[in-house]
Structures are given as C-alpha cells and as structure tokens.
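Hi L.,

You mentioned the student needs an example of a multi-chain input paired with its predicted structure. This one should do, with 706 residues in total across all chains.
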Amino acid sequence: MSLPLNIDASGRWMRTEGAADSDVVVSSRVRLARNLNELPFPHVAATDVLKAVREQVTQAAQSSKLLQKAHHIRLEDLSDVEKQVLIERHLINQRLLESKIASVIVEQEEIISVMVNEEDHLRMQALEPGLAMIDTWRLTDTLDNELEGALDYAFRPDVGYCTACPTNVGTGMRASVLVHLPGLVETKQIDKVLKAVSHLGLAVRGFYGEGTEPMSNFFQISNQITLSRAEEEIVDNIEKITKQIASKEREARKWLYSENHLRVEDTIFRAWGILRHARLLSSKESMNLLSSLRLGVYYKLIPDITPQMLNELFVLIQPAHLCVASGKDLQAEDRDVARAELIRARLRMKAAG
Amino acid sequence: MSLPLNIDASGRWMRTEGAADSDVVVSSRVRLARNLNELPFPHVAATDVLKAVREQVTQAAQSSKLLQKAHHIRLEDLSDVEKQVLIERHLINQRLLESKIASVIVEQEEIISVMVNEEDHLRMQALEPGLAMIDTWRLTDTLDNELEGALDYAFRPDVGYCTACPTNVGTGMRASVLVHLPGLVETKQIDKVLKAVSHLGLAVRGFYGEGTEPMSNFFQISNQITLSRAEEEIVDNIEKITKQIASKEREARKWLYSENHLRVEDTIFRAWGILRHARLLSSKESMNLLSSLRLGVYYKLIPDITPQMLNELFVLIQPAHLCVASGKDLQAEDRDVARAELIRARLRMKAAG
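Structure written out for the whole complex:
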C-alpha cells in the first residue's frame, strides 16, 4: 500500500493560524494509554493475542464518531520509509515498529490517532496547534468514552487504568506542549526555567519526544505523574505553566531586540539568505536556520512567511518525507540536495527579493 | 582639504572589463624607485631637504604629459582617515605616512601615481586591470623618461639606479600581479605552486603588499631581483609565469566543478545569500564571501554581477572608505553595519531574486 496521507502538506496540528500562543507554543498533545481487560500487555503477548487486540480495536473504532473517516494503517503493509514518515508526522513512535502486529488509526486531519499494540494495547492521541491543552484533552476524553463503549478496558478502582509501564498507571495520560524558546536560550535563562519546570513535576524532552535531544530551541514539556491526580488538573497545570513560560520567552525576545537589534536581525537575515540560496542543507542546520526564521517572523522582519509554513517545513524536510516525495531512496547527500531544493521552493513561493 | 578622488567609485585599475586574463589576474603593477643625485635618502634627510625634493618633483611633474591633469596631494593636508583611503586604493603605502614631508601625485584615472619621500625620493607606479605587465611597464618607463628630463637621478653606471634599500638597487623596479587563486587553494595545490614560483625568483605576498598576509585567496606575486637584469626581461618573465599560474588555476576550477558541482554551488550561493542579507559584515568575512562570489561569476552562476563590481567592492568596503563615505568616524560595529549596507545596496542594484 502507499500511505493514505497527503505528505506534501501538514497535518492540521501544524496549521497554527489563529491558534492561541502560537508564537511560542507549536502544538499541544494529549495521549491516553489503555489496555484490554484480561489480555497480556503487547510485549508479552503471543501473535494471535495481538491479532485479536487489533481486530477488537478496529471494530471499536468503526463505532466511533471521531474516527468515522479515519485511515486504518497496518504497519506490515508499509515500507520502512513509509513507517518513518509516520514517525516524522508524530503519528507513531519508534517503539511501535518493534511490535509484530501493529497498526495506527489516523483521523483524516491527523488531529486524532490511535496506535494499536505499542507498549499498551491502545495509545490514543490528540494533537492540536498552539496552546490548546483543555481542548486537546476533551478530544481524547471524548474518543476514550466512545471506544470504552465498545471495549473492555483493564481498570482497577484502587489505582485506575492499568498500563504496561508503571509510570503510566492511573490516568494513563501524558499531556505535553512543544514550545519554541530561542529567547530564553539566547539570554541563557533556559536552564533556570527548565529546572523550575521540572521542580513543578513536569519533564522536558526533545522535538521527537522521550529519549531525543532538544534541538534548535524546541522543547517538549510534559507531565511526569499519572497517578492519583485528575486529568483536568494535570492538563490545567501544564496550560498554566506554559502560559508563564510563553510570557518569559516573550520578555526575553523583547529584551534581546532592544539590547542589540542589529545582532538579532543579522542572525535572522543570514538564516533567511542561506535558506533561500544554499544547495546543500543538513537536517540539523535547516532546523537551526528555520528556528531563527521563526523568530524573524515573530519580530515581523520576514514578510509573507507564516509560522505555519515553518512548522510544515520542520516536518517535510525530514529524511523519510524527502524520500517519499522524490519517490527514491535518497542517500545522505542527495537528501541534503532535496532538502535545500524544497526549502528554496517553499520560501520563494511566498517571498520575492 | 578633502580628497580630490571619487571614492564612491574605483580607480580604473579595478575596471577589468576587456582586460586580459581578468578571471584570474586582478591587476598588474610596476613601480620604479628613483632618487635625486647628491641628496640624502629620505629617512636620513633633514626637513628642508625633504621640502626641496618635493618641490623639485612637483615642478618636474608639471612638465610631464602623463601627469598633466594629476592631483598633487600633500599628506599633511589630509586627515588620518583620508590617508588610509589612499592606502586602501593602493595609491600610497603605510611607509609614506612615516615621512615628515610627503606627498603623492595621482593621475586622474588613478592608473599612475608618484609617492614623494617614501623610502626613496620617488616611487612611481602604474597599476592596470588584468594581466598587462608589458603595457604597465611601458607606462612607467615613459613616465620615468619624462621625469628624468627634469630631474637629476642618482645613477651609477656600474650598478644602475641608487636606492635607499639595497634590494631595489639596479633597475629600481618592482613588478607585480594580484591574482585570485581559489581553485588552487581549494584543491590544495597552492603551496606547491607558490613554492615553484619562489624557486623562479618571484616573491608571494598578501593583498596589501609586503608584510601583509594572503587573504581570501588573493596573492601578490612580484620580482625579487632588481639588479643586473633588464626591466623588459623581468616583466616578461612575470607575465609568462602568471599565464602559467592562470592556466593551472583554470584547470583547478574546472576540476573542482566537475568533481562536485553541488558543493561548489552551495559555497557560492551561500556567499551570495549572506552578502545580500547580512546586517553585520566584518572586513575579513566580506572578503572571503566576495572571493567565493568572484568564483561564482567565473562559473556564470551569478548573473549580472561583474568581476569589476567585486573588485570595486573589495576596496570600497575597507574601513577608511566606509568612514569617508558616511562622513563619520565609525567604530568597528558601525563599520560592520555600513559595510553590510553598502554590499546589500550594490549587489541588489544589479540583481533581483
């Protein structure tokens, strides 16, 4: 099969227009871990059990309104590069690839997705642009209720939802925001801020979640604790802390510009010049330059470029997207060429001069 | 006084259009050292002697056809920054500033100039675009003959012209070319080539002559020996060796492009992007980027930019030129701003997109 997604464009979570606090907050995400009652967790389950789980979840999804027009994608039907595309779009993670019988159910706009047979039988996710924790939580909650009508979840009144990993027991919920903090990094306040965030019980991770390094001033902030706290409380807490971080980030941006606007402009316009002219761009360099450009858009220095275009580029320049777009298995240097071409084309479309 | 030169534009020596081998050879220069008979050399001469020398040379210049419309510029009439402008235009050197009574006679197109009371009483120079050693030599020779009609040169039949420094005794001539060798630098052949050049009795120096470092792939190649060799022979020798270097440089450029045109293009287009967008540019970085751009013009990658524009920029972006153009004594960061503005304006004038 080929992927049923339009990989030349982004999922709706990247379309930040009108989204709250989108100058700092790229996206909000909530995921719930659920398991089916009296069946072993995926990593210890036999193949026929995994098949039975997938069958049950597929059936249940068909009764869900939110997943009415969703794509059901079985991982065994995908090439390696197509699997990577799903990772790059934040629809699945590396872990799902290790499962023998796995699939992902992706709602058309890519706001909602459900991984089947990852660490838990179900991992449902909602991903929205900007700061929208409450909304995102309500969406997963609705989905959870719809599926619960058709599935028998493993649940114990004393602890809550049972999960394969104890860190998820209880609500089974992980809520996170992806934030862009160039101001706090540049003013060297980032360590202090991230330390404060972690004292508040939140974890900080990189662009692609657990185990990945923070990159190009993007950070993922999420809850650590899933037990003995109400979901609304967790979500509300992250929303409030993120608002505070966003406010600190804006102060830092303002200070940086007033302190030495020439240096700020120089960095941003150089990034703009290189992105629009380079013939070879590595993923890492592109991310760094696009991060600068994103700040340039905030300062209104770069006309006609929107945060949304940049959010989209962050995904579309990843290796697997480039390979699928070109229809070829590109080697590293060929990807650098394709990446530079894509960026030039996208940025030229919108801006002249 | 203010300088009688148009410092927004270049001397004619920078206008390489139609000049021979100007893809590699920026300019050709010949200078002759002459002293007046029975007068002490400038560094040991009393002020009244220096004054008398200047008077005599000024008179003699008025009888010269080549210097008919020349500017007579006395260094004591200039501000420090104006003196630096003359250095940046290759019309005088640092040494002349140490002289108590010094001047420079500059022909309108800046092809011909005569320093008075530098290391020797007279240092006459002709500077032409491209590879034009013979022409340049003939020009200085004609000037020399014109002045010799009005001055009594210190000359001994056994050794030739007497000079303050023994390395100039004999012909008193130094002939040099300024060459741009990015291909030989990039292919790491440069050391071998320069060693061969020095075995042939030529010296290699930086952009601003003796004591300066080679910079941005520009090298000055000149004769070492002034004694017991005919001028035409010296000049002819440099011309021939430069032709060989130019041919090796072109081979290297061709090889580089065929070997990895993407990497070549990437370097050139990045330079182009940065030069057209940066807000702060140091002198050194600008020179390096303009050097890349010059190669881009050679490869016909950058439309509408001529080597002449770049030669001009190499001079106009120097500190003193920037100060005089702005009418202010700019500090380092202000110069970086002014330099970036000038480069953006000049490159934008000629190119869109």
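You could point out the following to them. The radius of gyration of chain A is 21 Å. Residues 231-259 of chain A form the longest helix (29 residues).

Best wishes,
N.
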